């Protein structure tokens, strides 16, 4: 049974390795691969920094998701950021993605399902995109712990179409829950 529900506000993809992705009408998730016609789709890592480390590693970053509420927060700090501009494939509303445990499943519409694998670890591309933005989505808290707010990553368990307006159902994994770490 779903524990919470939200909606998809936008979907994006890019055939090339660029920071921002183009907002499109719909995307197709492919089981075990990622977003069809997206540069980060693949069974093994496609993220450029990870390719140089070990190109045979499994791709736990097939789909990038960001909560739309982050854009409101950033806007309040003077940063105009819109869906797709931070490189996400799916922008959601009404779900605290960052608080979900590892292994949470998100079902989009009636079919497509993504399992959350971890937090996006933002890098210098964000700072190149908008000066000062990296410090808004990645910093150390008062206890010295790194805070990552640039979205979550996942793998495709069940393929299918995803479009703006789709309902997102959240299914938590069995306890004990594991907090998200960077992937």
UniProtKB/TrEMBL annotation:
It holds the Pfam family MOSC. It comes from the Eukaryota. Residues 22-171 form the MOSC domain. Gene3D superfamilies: PK beta-barrel domain-like. Coiled coil: none annotated. One of its GO terms (molecular function) is pyridoxal phosphate binding. PANTHER family: METAL-SULFUR CLUSTER BIOSYNTHESIS PROTEINS YUAD-RELATED, MOSC DOMAIN-CONTAINING PROTEIN. This is PK beta-barrel-protein domain-containing protein-like protein. It comes from Lepidopterella palustris CBS 459.81.
């Amino acid at each position: 049974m779903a524990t919470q529900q939200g909606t998809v506000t936008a979907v994006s993809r890019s055939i090339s390795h660029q920071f921002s992705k183009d907002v499109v009408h719909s995307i197709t998730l492919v089981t075990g691969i990622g977003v069809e016609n997206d540069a980060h789709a693949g069974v093994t890592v496609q993220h450029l920094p990870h390719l140089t480390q070990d190109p045979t590693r499994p791709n736990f970053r097939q789909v990038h998701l960001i909560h739309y509420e982050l854009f409101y927060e950033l806007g309040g700090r003077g940063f105009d950021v819109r869906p797709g501009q931070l490189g996400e494939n799916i922008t959601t509303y009404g779900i605290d993605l960052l608080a979900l445990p590892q292994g949470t499943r998100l079902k989009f519409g009636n079919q497509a399902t993504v399992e959350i694998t971890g937090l996006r670890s933002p890098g210098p591309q964000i700072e190149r995109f908008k000066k000062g933005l990296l410090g808004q989505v990645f910093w150390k808290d008062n206890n010295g712990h790194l805070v990552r707010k640039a979205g979550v990553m996942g793998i495709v368990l069940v393929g299918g179409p995803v479009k703006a307006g789709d309902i997102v159902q959240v299914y938590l994994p069995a306890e004990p829950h594991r907090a998200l770490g960077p992937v």
